Amino acid sequence: MKSAYELALERLEQQGIERPREEALTDETRARMAEARRQAEAKLAELEILHHDRLSRMIDPAERDKEDEEYARERRRIEEARDRKLAELRAG
């Protein structure tokens, strides 16, 4: 399964935009990017734990479906925020 970053890079390439070169980044920028990824992963882990906890208490299938949709929406929001932050860091 590809990460959101890899998918974003593929979309850029499809639009004719060259893939950013990692070696052109400074050590400080790489560290900040790694920190942004760690923070996003922590948020995603917390979100998943809370989601499973809420699901375990739900009986109604409609409520479970609604919770699943909300979870997916929030997960996409966190991933998109992470990708935007990484793009900003790459751009300088």
Brief characterization of the structure:
78% of the residues lie in helices and 0% in strands. The protein is mainly alpha-helical.
Describe the structure.
By secondary structure, the chain is mainly alpha-helical. It has one domain. Helix content is 78%, strand content 0%. It contains three helices and no strands. Helix 2 (27-56) packs antiparallel against helix 3 (61-91). The two termini are 29 Å apart.
| Total domain modules | 1
Please count the beta strands (DSSP E, at least 2 residues each).
Answer: 0
Distance between the termini: 29 Å
Specify the number of helices: 3
Order of helices and strands: HHH
Mean pLDDT: 89
Please state the CA-atom Rg, rounded to the nearest Å. 17 Å
Envelope shape: elongated
Taken as a percent bin, the fraction of beta residues is under 5%
Helical percentage: over 70%
- Biggest sheet architecture: none
Low-confidence stretches are none
In terms of structural class, how would the helical and strand content be classed? mainly alpha
